[in-house]
Amino acid sequence: MEENQKLRSVATKVIEKCEGLPLAIVTIAKTLKDESMVVWENALEQLKDYVASKTVNSCLEWCYTHLKQDDLKSLLLLCGSLSYDGDISMDHLLQYAMGLDLFDHVDSLEQVRNRLLALVEILKASSWLLEDHRPQDRSNFNEQRCSSLLFTDPYNKFVKMYDVVYDVVREIASKDPHPFVVRQVVGLEEWSETNESKNCTFISLHCKAVDEQLPQALVCPELQFFLLHKGEYSLNIPNTFFEGMKKLKVVDLSKMTFEEVPSSLIDSLANLWTLRLDGCYKLKDIAGIGKLTKLQVLSLVGSGIRGLPDEMTQLSNLRLLNLNNCKELEVIPRIILSSLSRLECFDMTGCSNSQWAAVEGDHSNANACLSDLNHLSSLTTLSIIIPDAKLLPKGILFDNLTRYEILIGDSWAFRTRTNKALKLHKVNRGLDFGDGIIKLLERSEELVFLELNGTKFLLRPSNRMSFVELKQLDVRKSSDIQYIIDSMDQQFMEQGDFPLLESLFLWDLKNLEEVWHGLIPIGPFGNLKTLDVYSCPKLRYLFGLSTARGLSLLESMKIWNCEAMQQVITYGRESEDKDGGTNLELFPNLRTLELINLP
């Protein structure tokens, strides 16, 4: 009891040093959480030495010195140098972290991602970082807010900093023996003659005026990270600009308007690990890229490239290739894919014009065929558009994928909400897809079907593990569909089928007669929370009674424009268990119920 009172007294004095400022109190409290009396007393003595006129700054600087991991400090300094527009992309952080080799003892991109997420959570818990999960607007593409499959959770796509934290972290970074420098382009040539330029390892440049120009060369022999924000202004990069920065490991020239990469970037930066050219819409060619043999990350999101050069076969260390929204990209030489044996993440979302070869054995066609993706033995994350289902190889495909967004057919903008999504648009389901796609379908977390034809049923489980990971099922405008699930003559149906399904959307299915056709096991859809049914004119009921009893988590049910609907819940299905009476409460968690334009 006496020790608790003493601790309370010391804690009160520590809070007094914060002068009642909430951010300072919270950050210090979280830093000292679960620490001993000795640590609290030592903190009080150290805080007395900080400048009283800058209370928040002093408290935050003290908290920084007490971060327990060096990689936490490095990540925080990196975030502080990036937070120029209020938010920080987790995708960008991952690519920078890979280029800087920020984390020790990590061997794969997945391990880098997991370490990054863990450290960010620690920084959030200490109030250094804040969550930023604004919705992503797919209708207005913005490479700055474009996120990959590596970060699908809305709570981990972006992070933010308080303005005061940003200012303090920048001040701390400027005092580092190898400082992180954030400055404007103006006066850059004069600055390059200073000692700071000779020692700095990180520079973030901002163009603030239309008449600002870069010098012919910037001599920063220790520089490892270069980030250029040109804002809304046109800015030319001289071909000789990078000749004095030979230790560079990360270069980000996103949104630049050049038509080709500056020659000194290709010729002088042999140690480069990460190159980001997102939003460079005038960039048509990346000739010379093969000289960057140490490159691990290449991001060309929203660029204007029309083809990948053959020399990319020399990028054998490449682990992440992001071609998201490269709408003009057509040519992917088949020799490239067989050379990228270390590639772990390949993103071609939005590349709707890519010309995949149709025949695997036809080597007269320079373009790759989809079976060439099998050469990517390290590939775990894939986002791709396959314009025609007939291009799919019949053999095993995509066996090692842990994250994927695969769209077969015409492209359209449906937001992916899970790690494993398969989407079919205007596809004949009667085609023989081959084992690879069937396996993907049965282990997907999200399935979207739009204007499907060629089959009366949608899903037919082939084994006891079929669809056990499915969370989202969305079916629209598919007039041939009569049944969503067909279990006739199946031996694999068992209690609790579709155990993770959270959302079921059935829209504009003109001939849909039953959700489940055939024998229904006990307790399917036990995790269902959202059910939307729109314009299904032949659907007479949704579920039998025993199925409805299991929907204890259902929160929202909307049924619109179903002219033949006689009962939402039917009591007369012979294939369902009728025992147990009808007194059991149905849908105990239902919050939203809409029944509109029903008989």
Nearest-integer average pLDDT: 83
Largest sheet descriptor: 17 strands, parallel
- Separate helix tally: 14
Summing up helix and strand content along with how strands pair, one would put the structural category as: alpha/beta
How many beta-strand elements?
A: 25
Describe this structure in words.
- The structure is a single chain.
- With 599 residues, the protein is α/β, with parallel strands linked by helices.
- 23% of the residues lie in helices and 17% in strands.
- It has 14 helices and 25 strands.
- The protein has helices spanning 2-17, 22-32, 37-48, 55-65, 70-82, 90-100, 109-125, 163-174, 188-191, 195-199, 263-268, 334-337, 435-442, 545-549, and strands at 88-89, 130-132, 158-160, 180-184, 202-206, 225-229, 250-252, 274-276, 297-299, 320-322, 345-347, 381-386, 403-409, 420-425, 446-450, 457-459, 472-476, 483-486, 503-507, 514-517, 530-534, 543-544, 556-560, 569-570, 592-596.
- The strands form 4 sheets. The chain has a 17-stranded parallel β-sheet. Strands 1-3-2 form a 3-stranded antiparallel β-sheet.
- Strand 7, helix 11 (263-268) and strand 8 (274-276) form a beta-alpha-beta unit.
- Helix 1 (2-17) packs parallel to helix 3 (37-48) and helix 5 (70-82) packs across helix 7 (109-125).
- The chain is globular.
- The termini are far apart.
- Residues 136-141 have low confidence and may be disordered.
Task: Summarize it.
The protein is of the alpha/beta class. Helices cover 23% and strands 17% of the residues.
